[in-house]
Design brief:
- Its EC number is 3.1.-.-, 3.6.4.-.
- There is one protein chain.
- The chain is an alpha/beta fold and 785 residues long.
- β1 and β2 form a beta hairpin.
- The chain has six domains: 3-129 and 262-288, MutS, DNA mismatch repair protein, Chain A, domain 3 (Orthogonal Bundle); 150-254, MutS, DNA mismatch repair protein, Chain A, domain 3 (Orthogonal Bundle), CATH 1.10.1420; 295-512, P-loop containing nucleotide triphosphate hydrolases (Rossmann fold, 3-Layer(aba) Sandwich); 523-621; 626-705, SH3 type barrels; 709-784, Ribosomal Protein S8, Chain: A, domain 1.
- A six-stranded mixed beta sheet has the order 10-11-12-8-13-14, with helices on both faces. Strands 18-17-16-15-19 form a five-stranded antiparallel beta sheet.
- The longest helix has 86 residues, at 514-599.
Length: 785
């Protein structure tokens, strides 16, 4: 991708925003090197990586990416036998620890919250170097200081050092506390010069203590003297310090050699941590600009849904739909220079570069982007002062360069094509250039204020006109792109609103031909019709979407209800039969005993009474339900017709036949549901008489659909409970018998809070965790009363 295009479309500014979200120098290095790719497979994989990281970030906002350092120089020195400093070794241990943390984090997320194969593959390549990490941490603390416990020799030397230093201080303390010391010392303190303990002695008493002078004050009145009495002790301390330093070097060399042994593993860890940090930087940036993953293709199709320019604040930017490469390959945006056209060009160009660089784009889900072999842009109004070129000449130099390389894999963006010269010649050049680029099969978006190009979109196959909407009332552009509607001049309307007299305006109108008036009126009508059509289409789509979702949920609930009803009925029947069987056995035993008693003349009981009791007991057994199977013989009793009332045997519900969809299948209306049912599963009830249809009264209620589940993962505790409260109310209004609340496993705080709220709700009958197939302890199933 040409550096010039990246500069013109301000891709470097996007990278600057991305750099704000890296966690380490490793991620920063990859972000700084980021450029769009022209390899389709590479772009798709990069987008998948970003999407996985975004998925993790949405659910687990805190990613353990701290403590990562670029340890590659340290590893290289250790391999060739160099000694690493304690701070460098601490960075090695910290990076190893960070790799272990991120590996565990990714693996746990994969088990609990979702499928992330690319991140899981990277985590699988991380080698856990616990032994190296522990060796370094046992010898060096977090501040990079070598610990006494690093070796027994070092512990012994430091103990000796502390003992010697204590003796020196005690000797010097006795000197400065003596009565004579008050007049001879500048201050009664012990200090250090050249790593040796000294005391501040006034100049005139320099010979009293003897010893060695190590320093003097700026005035020369105070000398820092090491008294002769402690010279030997200070010498001992220096000898111990030399041995201590030698032991520290030995320990550092040993740890450096151990680091060098794991050079391959450490370099792999650095590479993976750099990738992971970069992936999550892209995810954080996506969250910042409210971006989504685009669907990538190789056919040159662009379909942006509510796309925004990423460098304009979200609360200020206007989102636009842009499609290119399917029904048409060229968009010509016409109209006066009132703003918005250049922003549209840059939005499409920048979204293309971002998508090919693996970044998500600031547009809604379902947006589609193509991988282009090259992107060319002639945007701006800069004159080339060095070459003494005019605006027109500067544009033509760029266009000549573009025409040398453009092909069917190119995206070309022209801003104010043909501007800066005679209008007639400029328009002619613009048409000729567009024809040439079209002939080569490139995708093109061009802006122009020449009215001659309004007809271009009607006279060329694969070309469509577009314009940026202008609000006459506010005298400003709305920045909404209107595809299919050419731009119209607003000069007369603007002039009138600004106060120009009607007489002057009418005279100006007389100079404009009738054809021009008709074209402008036609364009105005097109704009209004398009706005109304878009509004109605959006409303229709929303209604259709809500209806489809409601139908699916009701059908699912109906099936679940009847399955559960059948199960409970069968279970109750089995239990009743078991109870009666037990009662029959007991009764038979009693009757047997009564017969025996009669035989023994102990009781007068008639045989017909015993038989009658036995019959009543048998009749008390529960009756088997009629089989729902409908025999072929029964089916032939009636020839079904649309409008017949029938019973659907599998649901035990009444419905109405709508139409026959195959030889043995009917579409049946059950309440508000429509479903296909086999004829053998139908039982004829009656054919209703034709009645006069009347409008059905409807009650306006909620215009949105209530889902059967609420996903709280990634929510803050307070927000989550607020959402649960509203969701339970909506579910009760929708008369749902049961709903699911997804809270994830996590720390358990959110799960506990949700369940405590549900237990205290007056309309909740019971709650339980989901079964194995329902999400386990990450989901709470709520049954309503």
């Amino acid at each position: 991708m040409q550096q010039k295009v990246l500069k013109v479309l301000e891709f470097e500014k996007v990278k600057a925003q991305l750099l704000e979200h890296v966690s380490s120098s490793l991620g920063r290095e990859l972000a700084e090197k980021l450029i769009p790719s022209t390899d389709f497979e590479e772009v798709v994989k990069s987008q998948e990586e970003t999407d996985e990281a975004a998925k993790v970030f949405r659910i687990k906002a805190n990613i353990p990416l701290g403590g990562i350092f670029d340890i590659r120089p340290h590893v290289k020195r250790s391999v060739i036998g160099g000694m690493l400093s304690s701070h460098e070794l601490m960075q090695v241990a910290s990076t190893v620890h960070a790799s272990r943390q991120i590996k565990r984090f990714i693996e746990e997320f994969s088990e609990e919250d979702g499928d992330i194969p690319l991140l899981l593959e990277k985590a699988g390549r991380i080698i856990v170097l616990a032994e190296l990490e522990q060796s370094i941490k046992n010898a060096i603390d977090d501040n990079g200081e070598v610990l006494d416990s690093a070796s027994e020799t070092l512990r012994s030397l430091r103990n000796q050092l502390r003992t010697k230093e204590t003796r020196v201080r005690e000797r010097l303390e006795s000197m400065i506390r003596s009565s004579s010391a008050q007049k001879m010392l500048s201050d009664a303190i012990i200090t250090i010069r050249n790593d040796r303990f000294v005391i501040p002695v006034k100049q005139e008493y320099r010979g009293h203590y003897g010893g060695i002078i190590h320093d003097q004050s700026s005035s020369g009145q105070t000398l820092f003297i090491e008294p002769q009495a402690i010279v030997d002790l200070n010498n001992d301390i220096q000898n111990i310090r030399i041995k201590e330093q030698q032991e520290i070097e030995r320990i550092l060399i040993m740890l450096s050699a151990q680091t060098g042994e794991y050079s391959f593993e450490l370099e792999t860890i650095v590479e993976i941590l750099a990738d992971v940090d970069f992936m999550f930087a892209k995810a954080r940036y996506s969250n910042r600009i409210k971006a989504t993953k685009p669907i990538m293709n190789q056919e040159g199709r662009i379909s942006l849904v509510k796309a925004r320019h990423p460098l304009i604040p979200i609360d200020e930017v206007v989102a636009n739909d842009v499609t290119l490469g399917k029904d048409y390959t060229t968009i010509v945006i016409t109209g006066p220079n009132t703003g918005g056209k250049t922003v549209t060009l840059k939005t499409v160009g920048l979204c293309t570069l971002m998508a090919q660089a693996g970044l998500q784009i600031p547009a809604l889900d379902g947006s589609e982007m193509a991988v282009f072999g090259a992107v060319y842009a002639d945007i701006g109004d800069e004159q080339s002062i060095e070459q003494s070129l005019s605006t027109f000449s500067s544009h033509m130099v760029n266009i000549v360069d573009i025409l040398k390389s453009v092909d069917f894999e190119s995206l070309v963006l022209f801003d104010e094509l043909g501007a800066g010269t005679d209008p007639q010649e400029g328009a002619a050049l613009a048409i000729s250039i567009l024809d040439e680029v079209n002939r080569r099969g490139a995708r093109v978006i061009a802006t122009t204020h020449y009215p001659e190009l309004k007809a271009y979109g009607y006279n060329r196959e694969g070309v469509v006109n577009a314009s940026v909407e202008f609000d006459i009332d506010t005298l400003s552009p709305t920045y909404r792109l209107l595809i299919g509607v050419p731009g119209r001049s607003n000069a007369f309307e603007i002039s009138k609103r600004l106060g120009l007299s009607d007489q002057v305006i009418e005279k100006a109108r007389s100079f404009v031909g009738a054809d021009s008036h008709q074209v402008e009126n036609m364009i105005a009508s097109l704009e209004e019709s398009k706005r109304q059509a878009e509004k109605e289409l959006q409303e229709a789509n929303e209604i259709l979407k809500n209806a489809e979702m409601l139908q699916k949920d009701l059908q699912k609930q109906m099936i679940e209800y009847y399955e559960k009803k059948d199960t409970l009925y069968d279970k109750a029947t089995d239990e009743a039969r078991e109870i009666l069987d037990r009662a029959k056995r007991e009764a038979e035993g009693i009757i047997h005993d009564l017969r025996k008693m009669r035989q023994d003349k102990q009781a007068e009981i008639k045989e017909h009474e015993l038989i009658d009791a036995q019959r009543k007991l048998n009749e008390a057994a529960p009756k088997e339900r009629k089989s729902r199977a409908f025999t072929a013989k029964q089916a032939k009793k009636h020839v079904y017709q649309p409008g017949d009332e029938v019973k659907i045997l599998s649901f035990d519900q009444k419905g109405t036949l709508i139409e026959k969809v195959s030889s043995d299948t009917w579409q049946v209306q059950i309440g508000i549901l429509k479903m296909k049912v086999e004829e053998k599963n139908l039982e004829y009830i009656k054919t209703p008489k034709a009645v006069e249809t009347k409008p059905i009264a409807t009650i306006k209620g909620k215009d949105f659909h209530v889902s059967l589940e609420l996903d709280l993962r990634g929510e803050r505790y307070e927000n989550a409970l607020s959402r649960v409260e509203k969701y339970i109310d909506d579910a009760l209004l929708a008369a749902y018998p049961r709903v699911s609340i997804i809270h994830g496993k996590g720390t358990g705080a959110l799960r506990q809070g949700v369940q405590e709220y549900l237990r205290n709700h007056r309309s909740v009958k019971s709650i339980r965790f989901g079964d194995h197939g329902e999400g386990g302890t990450g989901v709470t199933i709520v049954e309503f009363k």
